[in-house]
Amino acid sequence: MNLLCVGASYRTADVATLEKLVITPGELPQVLQRLMAQPYVGEAVIVSTCNRVEIYAAVSGFHGGLGDVCTLLAERSGITPSDLAPHLYVHYDEAAVRHSFRVSAGLESMVVGEAQILGQLRDAYHAATEADTAGRLLHELMQQTLRVGKRAHAETGIDRAGQSVVTAALDLAATHFADGLEGRTALVVGAGSMGALSVATLTRAGVGPLQVTNRTPERAERLAEAYGARAVPFADLDRALAEVDIVISATASTQPVLTRERLEAARPVVVLDLAVPRDVAPDATDVDGVVVIDIDGLAAGRRTLPAAAETAAVEQIVVAEVEHFLAWLRGADIAPTVAALRSRAETVVATELRRLNARRPEFTDEQRADVSRTLHRVVQQLLHSPTVRVRQLAAEPGGDQYAALLRELFDLDVPHATQADAVPEIGGPA
Question: Known catalytic residues?
Answer without folding.
Answer: 50
